[in-house]
Amino acid sequence: MTETPVAPELLTHESTLRELTTDKGVLRYHEAGQGPPLVLLHGSGPGVSGWRNFSGSLGLFAGHFRTLILEFPGFGISDPTDEHAMLGAPATVLRFLDGLGLDRVDLIGNSMGGQVATKLALTRPERVRRLVTIGGIGRNLYAPMPSEGLRLLTDFVDDPTRPNLVRWLRGMVFDQSLITEELIEDRLSTGTEAQTLATARSMFGSEALKFLIAAAQAGGVPEWAQLGNITAPTLLTWGRDDRVTPLDSSIIPMRAIPNGELHVFPNSGHWVMIEAKEAWESVVLAFLTRPDACSDAS
Q1: Whole-structure pTM over 0.70, yes or no?
Q2: What range(s) does the AB hydrolase-1 domain occupy (predicted)?
Q3: Tens of pLDDT along 80-92?
Q4: Domains of the chain, residue spans
Q5: Beta-carbon contacts of residue 243 (< 8 Å; ≥ 6 apart)
Q6: 27, 36, 84, 117: which is deepest, by most CB within 10 A?
Q7: Straight-line distance from the first to the last Cα atom of the chain, in angstroms, rounded to the nearest whole number
Q8: For the segment 44-72, what is each residue's pLDDT rounded down to a tens digit?
Q9: Are 133 and 114 in contact (CB under 8 A)?
Q10: What is the C-alpha separation between 89 and 107, in angstroms, rounded?
Q11: CA separation for the pair 161, 167 (Å, rounded)
Q12: CATH topology of domain 8-142+224-295
């Protein structure tokens, strides 16, 4: 496949924004490019969005794929639903794919988005051609749970002050220069909106986190123990200095997923696609455009 990246100046927020009406409200997303469908799924921190996570890579991927950045309900962009933002996210993706008439896609998921993409690869394998995750999945083997990054996030959603936001953001990255005043103010304004904050508290507030940890320790087969059932070729990408889902979380998925491979990026935290942008894009693009991958594209 010949690389023909789309000029970034042509891919503004407004020019790529689309809407899809579903039976659970309007889903908003960004779209650019032509070719096999590639869906990008964002993470879950306060003030997060698909555009903030992936707009910097949209031009490159749009040169090879019909690239779709989905905005999950509950984060202030797509219409909210009565579902828990994380638990309802897999069904949201299926609604999105069905609404656009997409049978089989490549998925890239950051953090929560990686968990959602992994869930779909397990439960609806016929819909997932290739899977790329950015941190987010697996299980801590050596690092404590909840991790340092999750504890900092809980501190903020319990007490949404500017100092707590700054501490959380600084825990997300290796390169502290990325935490600019502009980023802080942007995340503070969006992350403290009533709906966004309620969503964050439902996932990362003190009581919610206790519930999630207890549920993970309860009976039944945890998702990390089912990773061996994933049939899609899978690329795990990880920041060596990730303080939210520490690198030891990658060991089980790396070993368990039959067609899984792991690439670790130095000097990067939880936002690998931003901190190691060019290296990450190169690795992911090579994975998605291998001849054997392209031959079975839908």
Answers
A1: yes
A2: 36-276
A3: 998 988 889 999 9
A4: 8-142+224-295
A5: 147, 148, 149, 171, 172, 269, 270
A6: 117
A7: 15
A8: 988 899 999 999 999 999 999 999 999 99
A9: yes
A10: 14
A11: 10
A12: Rossmann fold (3.40.50)
Which listed residue (30, 64, 263, 270) is catalytic?
270
263 included as an active-site residue = no
Name residue 195's amino acid: Q
Q: In what order do the strands lie in the sheet with 234-239?
A: 17-22, 25-32, 66-70, 37-41, 105-110, 128-134, 234-239, 260-265
| Residue 21 exposed, middle or buried by CB count within 10 Å (0-12, 13-18, 19+) | exposed
pLDDT band, residue 274 (cuts 50/70/90): very high
Cis status of the peptide bond prior to 90, with omega within 30 of 0: no
Higher pLDDT, 105 or 292: 105
How many beta carbons lie within 10 A of that of residue 12, not counting itself? 11
User: Distance (Å, rounded) from C-alpha 132 to C-alpha 191?
Assistant: 27
CA distance 249 to 64: 31
Structural contact between residues 172 and 187, judged by C-beta atoms closer than 8 angstroms: no
